Queue: 2 jobs
Job 1
Amino acid sequence: MAARQLRSERTSEWLIRSLLVGLAALWMIPLIWIVAMSFKPNDVLAMSTSGLLPIPFTLKNFSDIFFVSMTPRWLLNSAVVALGTTALTLVVASLAGYAFARLDFPFKRTLFIIVLAGLMVPEQTLVIPLHAVVTSWDLHNTHFALMAPRVALPVGVFLMTQFFKAVPKELEEAAAIDNASRFTIFRRIMLPLSIPALVTLGIYTFLHSWNDFFWPLVSATNTNMYTITVGLASLQGNFAQTEGLGFIMATAVFASLPIVIVYLIFQRYLVRGIALSTGK
Amino acid sequence: MTAAHSATSPKHIGISPRFAFEPKSSAKRRDGLAALAFLAPYLIFFVLFLAYPFFWGVWISFHDWELVGTLRKFIGLANYWDMFEDPIFRVSIRNTLLFTAITVPVMVAASLGLALALNRENRFHAVLRVIFFTSSVFSVTVATLIWIMVLSPDRGLFAHLFNSLGLQPIAFLGSPDWAMPALTITTVWWSVGFPMILFLAGLQQIPQELYDAARIDNASAWRRLTRITLPSLKRTIVLVVVLQIIGQLQIFGQPLIMTGGGPADRTRSMVQTIYETGFNEWQLGYASAMSLFLFGVMFLASMLQLYISRQED
C-alpha cells in the first residue's frame, strides 16, 4: 500500500518536472528569439525573422546604439534617476523610520497614520495633479522631477520602521548611558545593523525607478531627458514596422542588461523585499 | 500594489515604551527636537510630492481647469457627473473591468500553480524560480516590445508556427476578439513573478508538522493540497487577489503601447483615458475627477481585503 503510493508519487513527480521544464522553455523562447534578433543584420530580418539562433551573426546593431542613437543619453538619464532615487530613498526612509520606531514625540501616532495613508494613493491617480504642481514649480525635464515623486512614497519609511522596531532595545540603551546623541546612536549602532534591510529597499527602489513609465512619459517631454523606458517606447512608434528591427531589439536587450544584472546579483534580497513590502 | 499595504499595517502601529531610566518629560522634549530633524527630510518630499498634489487634485477636480490657458472655473461636482455620461470613459470603465476580470483569475491560478510546483529547496527548482521571475524585471516597454513581435501577424513567433502548420496567421492585436486576451497573456508573462513570490513566502510559513501528520495518516497529495495547503494559504490568496485587482485596474502601458487602445477602443483603459484627457485635451480638472474615481474603486478593493481578513480573526 505505502510502497504503491510512493511509486505513484514518484511518477507524478517526474510528470510535474517535465511539465515545468516545458513551461520554462515556453517562457524563455520569446526572450531567446529577441536576443537572437539583436545579433542579426537588419536586411536579413527584413526578409525573415524566424530562427532562435543568431545566424548570420553581427555586432553592428550594438555598435549603432553608441554611434547613431540617443540610447546612451537615455541610459545615462535612467542611471542618474534610478541611482539618485535609490540614494535619496535610503537616506530619508532610514532617518524617518528610526524616528517612528525609536523616538517619542508629540503626535507620533497621528503622523505615522498620515504617512501610511499615503500608501493608499496609487501612483497612476497622482500623475495628473503632480504634473500640474511640478509645472507650477517649473521643474519638468529635470532629473530631480523624475526622482522626487518616488522618494515621497511611504513604502521605504514603512519598511525601515518595521525593521528598526525589531532591533533589541538593549543595544541602544548601552550607548544612551554613554550620553551619545540620537544621531550618533543612529549612525554608529542602528545603521550598520540595518544594512540587509537597506540593500533590500535599495534593490526594490532601483528596479521600480528604472522601470517607471507613466511619470517620466509626461514629465520628461524633451528627448534629451527621456529615460530608457520612455525612449524605447518612442523608438517602437517610429521604427517597429520598418527596417531597423535588429537595432530595436539590440536597444531593448542593452537597456535591460543593467536591470537583469542587478536582479541576478541581488535576487535573494529582492525576493525578500517583495514579501516584506506587502506586510508578510 | 501599494494600496493594500496599509490594510495590513495599522495593527503594527504601537508607541514604543520610553527608556525606563529617563524622566518622562525631558526625554520627550529632547526626543521631540531630534525627531523633527530625523523626519524633516522625508516629510518635505512627502508633503511636496504626495500630500499636496493629492489634495490639489481633489481641488482641481471641482473645476473646469485647463493645462494651459486661463480657464479655471469652479463647477462643483459637474466633472463627476459628466464622466458617467461620457461614452469614452464608460467604454474605458467597461474594458478595464473586463480586463481585470479576465486577468486576475488567470494570474492568481498561474502564480499559485507555479508556487506550489516550485516550493522545494533544490537547485532544479531554484533555477526555475529565477526563470519565471526574470520577465518581471523588464520594463513595460521591453515586455510589450517582445510581445508585439511575438504576436505580429507577418513576422511573429505565432505567425511562424501557424505558417508551418499551413494555417492563416491571426493579427491578434488588430482583432476585436483577440486583442484583450493577447494583453492578458502579455501581462501574465510579464508579471506572474510577484504573486508567485508572495505565494512562495506564504507556503514557507505553513508548519511542516501538518504535513508530517498527514503523511502518517496516508493522506493523498490531493487531500494534503485541499485540506492543509490551500486553507493555510487563505490569507495570502486574499492578499494576492486584492493586489492583483488593484494592479490590473491601473493597466496602462500594455494597451497604450501594443494596441493604442484599439481596435475601435476595445482595449482602451481608464488610465489611458485619464492620460489623454489630461495631456492631449488638456482638461486637468476632468482628468483629476476621473483619477479620483479610479482611486475610489481601488480603495473599495483594499477595504474588501481588510474586511475579509477581519472576518477571519
Job 2
Amino acid sequence: MSTIDRRAILKALTASVAVLAAGGLTATPAAAAADVSEGWTTQTLGAFADTLIPGEHRFPGDQVCAGAVTGPGAVQAGVIDVMNSPQLPLAPLLPEIAALLDARAVAYAAVRLIWLSPSRPPFVDLSFSHRTDLVSGLFGSGDLDEPVWQVMSLIVGIAFDTAGQSDTAAALAQGHPGLAWLRFPEPDPDGLWRFGDFSYGRPLAALHPATTPSGSPA
Amino acid sequence: MTETTDVLVIGSGFGGAIPAYYMAAGGARVTILERGPRWGAAQFSHSMRLGTYNKIVDVIRGDGVSVVAGNCVGGGSVVYFAASLRAPSYAFERHGSIGRRMWPASLSRATLDPWYDRVEQALPVAHTGWSDVSYAGGVLAAACRRAGHTCNPVPVAVDTAACTNCNWMLSGCAFDAKRSMLLNYLPAAEAHGAVIRPLHEVQLITPSPESGYRYAVAYTVLDPDDYTCTTNVGIIHAKVVVLAAGAVGTPVILQRSALLLGGIPGAVGRYFSGNGDHVSVADVDESKAGSLLGLSRPDGTVYQGLPIGRPITSATYDYLDPSAPEYSRFMLQQIYFPPLTNILAQTTGAPGWFGVDKRRMRARWPSWLTLLAMTEDDNEGTFGVVPPTGGFIRLAPGLGQGTMSFRPTTRTRQAWDRADTALRGILEKDGLSRVRPWTEALAGTVTAHPLGSARIGDDPTTSALDDQHELRGFRGLFVTDGSAVPASLTVNPSLTIAALAERAAIGIATRVAEAGVTMTGGVPLPGR
C-alpha cells in the first residue's frame, strides 16, 4: 500500500466536516452566535444570496436586498426556499452557516471601524459594496470554511438560474424571476421542449482537410 | 445462499456495458452491479427541479477539481452529450510528464481504428452535416471561417431523425434519440441472460474463498429515495471481475480493497486527468454577429440561440496539429450546459462571477456561446484517503465530496492559456464577443471527462494495468472505463473508452474461458 499523506487526510477531513457537520462549524468563532434566531438566519443568508445575484428592495426599508439594481435577484427567485428544500440536507445547518457569515461580518467591520447596529444581523448591516468585498475574500483564501461558501453559492445559482424548487415548465408558467431574467425558452404545450428551427442550415466554414469519413480528426 | 456469477461487471456505462455484452453473448453468466437507479425515457424529464436530473448525475467536488459523472444504469452514456470522435493520432504518442510514451506499444490510432469502426456501427454514430449544426455551433463555425480557420460538424451517437433538438441531454433522452448503452449493448447483454442490478454500490473486492471463484465482491444496496441509506448488503463471488465504476469510482474501490488484496499497483489513484477540459463563455454581441458573420434566423434574429439544439454540434480541428509540441494541441468545441453552470461564467471585470455586472450578463444569456477546450494536461491528479463507503462522501443528491486532488501544473496552465488565446483570436475578433473562462473559485477546474486513475501502459511504475486492461498482479481483474485511458485525448473520450472496451473484451473472454466457462467466439455486434 502506498504511503498515506497525512496532510491529505487532514485536508479531506476538514473539507468534508466543514460542509457536513455543524460540529465542524462550532469550532469557529460562530459558536458564540450559535443561538441566533431563525429570522436572522434567513436575513443573513438572503443578504449573501443578494450579494451574488442582486435584486431590488422588496419593500421600503428592505435591508436584506440591498437594492443595488432594479428587478429580481436570488432572493426574489426563492433562494431561501431552495436552501430549506427537503431535497437538500442543508436546513439544519443554515443557522450555523449564517452565524459563521455574521462572525465574518463582525470581524470585517471591526478592522474597518464600521459601526454595526445590534438590531439586525451583522452581514445584513453591511453596505452592498462591503458585502461584495467580504464575499470576494471568502474565496481563494484556502480557509477551512471555503467549501461551505462554494456549496452555498452553487445553491444560490440553482435557485435563480434553474428554479430548482419547481418543475421547469411550471416555474416558467408562474413567471419564475430567474428563468424570466434569462429568457429561458418556453416548452411545447405538453411540457417538453422541441426546436423545429435550430440551425442556420448552410455551410458556414470549410471542413478540416484531414477529416476522416466518419467525421473525426485524423 | 452464496451468490455466484461467472463475470461480475461493476458499472454499466461504456466501460461496463460493452464487456458485459460480449461475455454474456459468449456464454458466460454475467451480473452487472450499478450504483445508480435504472431509468428510461419515461423517467427522463425536461426539468431542472431538484430530485430529477440530480438523481442520475453527480457533481463530485475534489480539491481543485470537480467532476461531472453519470449515476444510473447506462452510466455516462445516458447523461453525456454524445459527441463521438476518434482521438487524433498524436494523442497516442504523448509522453506527458513521465518521459516516455504513456500508451502501451501495442496501441496506436491505427491499431484502435478497427475497434472505433465497430463502436461507430454498434451505437451507431451519425455523421452530421451543416443542417445538424445548431445556431450556437453555427456562430462558432462562422467565426472560425472569418478568422481563417476550418470548423467541422461533430459526429454524434444520436438518431438525428428522432432527435427534437430539445437540449436536455444532461437529463437523459426522453425521446430515445440518444444512442446510450440503454439502447444497444445493455439490452443485448440482457437478451443473453445478463442481469443488471441497479442501486448496488460496490465497496470492496477481496480474494474469494469459494472454490472455482477468484474474487468476492461486497456491495451495499442503496435506498432509491436517499442514496446515503443502505437497505441491504451482500457478497457475490465471481470468476472474473470487470471494474468500470468510472474514473472517480474505480480507483477508490481498488484503494479500499488494497489491504485485503495484498497490495495494489502504485499507479492506482495517480495520473488522474481531466482531459484538459477548460470551459469558457463568450458573450456574443448580436449586432456584430449579424454584421461580421452575416447570420440570420428565420424569425429575423441573428443568434440568441444558446439553449437551442443539441449541446455539441461543431468544433475546429485546426489546433490538433500533430507536428505541434505537446501541451499546445487542443480542440475547441461548441457546447451547451444547462443554466446550472451559469454561476461559473465570468464578466470581464471584478468580481467576475457574481454581482451586478454578472446579473446584467445573465440578461444576455440567450446570446452566450459556451466553448469547451479539450487540452493536454499533465495527469497531475491524485486520489487521497478512502471515504467510508462509495466513491465519495455524498453531501446531497447530485453533490459529493470526492477524495481527488488536482493542482494544475505550469504546463497544464500553459495549455489552457494557449486555448484561451486561440479562442479569443476567433471570437473576440473585431468585437464579436467577450470571452472569459469559467471561474475556478467555486469548484476548481471542472471536467466531464475524468481519465487515467488506473491506466493501461507498459511501465509498471506509471500504469496500473497492462495493455490488456488487467490489473497488474491480479489475474482476471480488469479495468475498462475512463480510468484506463492513459492521458488526455484532446477530444471527447467516450468513443475511445468504448473502443478500448471492445478491444479488451478479447482478453477478458480468454480469462473467463480459463476459469472453465465454455465461451464461443465470433460474437456479432449487439443487435445484429
